[in-house]
Amino acid sequence: MTESRDLLRQAEHQCQARGARFTPIRRRVLELIAEAPGGLKAYDLLDRLAAEHAAARPPTVYRALEFLIDQGLVHRIESLNAYVACPCPEHSHGFQLLICRRCGRVEELHLDDVNDQLADRARELGFRVERQTIELLGRCEACPDA
């Protein structure tokens, strides 16, 4: 719970510093994602939000998610079509995600040398990277082989 509060406080300060509006809905969406043990799918998020706000609709959730992603506060897990809170939004470089297929735990890595190598090679090939997602699927140490 303290981690979630710290994350929200940090998000609020970051948005304020950037002049971005951290509305109550955006804040609540981030809070719900941060409270989820692993990634949270958009429609699960909508169900939770609709229980609190009868007017919540898919566009509301998707606009909030887009804002949170643009601010670096949330990452989309492509392979799961889910969203996870970024534990260190002040880190402006690329990231990699370790995803446990068994329990859903997600850990974020910041191996800048990996990102730099990929960007350099793409540039050498005349390719302009617009978005990068690196996900490693496997099992965390807490999940036994079965």
UniProtKB/TrEMBL annotation:
<keyword id="KW-0805">Transcription regulation</keyword>
<feature type="binding site">
    <location>
        <position position="100"/>
    </location>
    <ligand>
        <name>Zn(2+)</name>
    </ligand>
</feature>
<keyword id="KW-0804">Transcription</keyword>
<dbReference type="InterPro" id="IPR036388">
    <property type="entry name" value="WH-like_DNA-bd_sf"/>
</dbReference>
<comment type="similarity">
    <text>Belongs to the Fur family.</text>
</comment>
<dbReference type="GO" id="GO:0003700">
    <property type="term" value="F:DNA-binding transcription factor activity"/>
</dbReference>
<dbReference type="InterPro" id="IPR043135">
    <property type="entry name" value="Fur_C"/>
</dbReference>
<dbReference type="InterPro" id="IPR036390">
    <property type="entry name" value="WH_DNA-bd_sf"/>
</dbReference>
<keyword id="KW-0479">Metal-binding</keyword>
<feature type="binding site">
    <location>
        <position position="140"/>
    </location>
    <ligand>
        <name>Zn(2+)</name>
    </ligand>
</feature>
<feature type="binding site">
    <location>
        <position position="103"/>
    </location>
    <ligand>
        <name>Zn(2+)</name>
    </ligand>
</feature>
<dbReference type="InterPro" id="IPR002481">
    <property type="entry name" value="FUR"/>
</dbReference>
<dbReference type="GO" id="GO:0045892">
    <property type="term" value="P:negative regulation of DNA-templated transcription"/>
</dbReference>
<dbReference type="GO" id="GO:1900376">
    <property type="term" value="P:regulation of secondary metabolite biosynthetic process"/>
</dbReference>
<feature type="binding site">
    <location>
        <position position="143"/>
    </location>
    <ligand>
        <name>Zn(2+)</name>
    </ligand>
</feature>
<comment type="subunit">
    <text>Homodimer.</text>
</comment>
<protein>
    <recommendedName>
        <fullName>Ferric uptake regulation protein</fullName>
    </recommendedName>
</protein>
<keyword id="KW-0408">Iron</keyword>
<keyword id="KW-0862">Zinc</keyword>
<keyword id="KW-0238">DNA-binding</keyword>
<dbReference type="GO" id="GO:0005829">
    <property type="term" value="C:cytosol"/>
</dbReference>
<dbReference type="GO" id="GO:0000976">
    <property type="term" value="F:transcription cis-regulatory region binding"/>
</dbReference>
<keyword id="KW-0678">Repressor</keyword>
<dbReference type="Pfam" id="PF01475">
    <property type="entry name" value="FUR"/>
</dbReference>
<keyword id="KW-0963">Cytoplasm</keyword>
<dbReference type="GO" id="GO:0008270">
    <property type="term" value="F:zinc ion binding"/>
</dbReference>
